Amino acid sequence: MRPIHQVVAGATRQDAITRHVFRARGVIRAMGHPSEVYCDPRHLAADLADEVRDVNGWRVTAGTDAAAILHYSIESPAFTHVVEHCSACAIHYHNITPADLLWTFNPNLAAQCREGRARLVAFAPRVIGAAADSAFNAEEMDALGFPPVAVIGVLRPDGGPTPARTRHPGPPRILFVGRGVPNKAQHSCILVVAALGQVGVEVRLRLVGSWGGSPAYTAYCHVLARDLRVADQVEFLGSVSDADLAHEYATADAFLCLSEHEGFCVPIVEALEAGIPVVAFRAGAVAETLGHAGIVLDDKSPSLVAEALLGVLSGDIGVPESARREQISHHSAERTTARLQDFIRTLA
């Protein structure tokens, strides 16, 4: 059967797109198609060298009849190289952060994102199929003239049984999971901690995710917490293992997402699966991913978010359990796999 390979701009084990492509590779192979993952070697984590192929060797190793799925989340010469040398290409759009959310703290990344968005349109006439994580992403592709877009979602590794919810001693724990970059808006979460303190409510904000990509923003968040006198209530946990992340979900009292832009937001799904109440700002695909299974806010003024969190923590504000289960089912591996299989059939 026709080889169907996947191409990414970069790959690391903790990255959601990398995890998706590995799981998708298994799905594609189970359908009978040879399938590998290709990457720009300059942005490939050393511990994945045996699992991911060098995109520069595409013409030698991919096969003359191979199709490619480009996982587009930032501009990369890997995509242009493959488009020029494969027999047929499709694109899976994971969205790109708008540059204006990044200029202040990370101008280099902002420039890359601006270029990535500008170059995306050039792929529209060159692909035979298009997919996206969310309808939000699909709408952007529709506007750029891509073929009809299949909304697939995101596949995640099987992490095993979800740990039982565990009440911990001390103040309520507010969790957010995401890279330490300006568009994830961890600073907004810190402002909420300060707002809660002004009404006599002490919480612990636990921030999980790598902080290596934007040193200026990291410094800003630390200074903000110090100046607001909540530094002892904000814990910068960095990147953690899957086991430690599962523990964070199991011991959290609420999940707070005040991100300014999301093309999907995998941690929201993980929070729902863990049974944690979710309070989130309506940005990008957040409302779509969360559905009616959490509290979606149109305004993230610290006082308003603090009020919503107080309602969730006290139990005065909640959502029907049926809504949570419905959303978990929609994002399940089974249903996401089925949507991916339908897309793969269009390429075969």
Give an overview in words.
By secondary structure, the protein is α/β, with parallel strands linked by helices. It folds into two domains: 4-154 and 332-347, 3-Layer(aba) Sandwich (Rossmann fold); 173-330, Rossmann fold. Helix content is 40%, strand content 16%. The chain has helices at 16-30, 58-61, 77-85, 107-120, 135-143, 186-198, 215-227, 242-251, 266-274, 286-290, 302-314, 321-330, 333-347, and strands at 4-8, 37-39, 53-54, 67-72, 88-93, 129-132, 149-151, 173-177, 204-208, 234-238, 254-257, 278-281, 295-297. A seven-stranded parallel β-sheet has the order 3-2-1-4-5-6-7, sandwiched between helices. Strand 6, helix 5 and strand 7 (149-151) form a beta-alpha-beta unit. Helix 6 packs parallel to helix 7 (215-227) and helix 6 crosses helix 11 (302-314). The model has no long low-confidence stretch (mean pLDDT 95).
Name its key features.
13 helices; 13 strands; alpha/beta; Rossmann fold
CATH superfamily of the largest domain: Glycogen Phosphorylase B
* Largest sheet properties: 7 strands, parallel
Oligomeric composition of the shown chains:
single chain
- The fraction of residues in strands falls at 15-25%
Judging by the overall fold, what is the CATH architecture of the largest domain?
3-Layer(aba) Sandwich
How do the helices and strands line up, and which of them pair or pack?
Elements: E1 4-8, H1 16-30, E2 37-39, E3 53-54, H2 58-61, E4 67-72, H3 77-85, E5 88-93, H4 107-120, E6 129-132, H5 135-143, E7 149-151, E8 173-177, H6 186-198, E9 204-208, H7 215-227, E10 234-238, H8 242-251, E11 254-257, H9 266-274, E12 278-281, H10 286-290, E13 295-297, H11 302-314, H12 321-330, H13 333-347
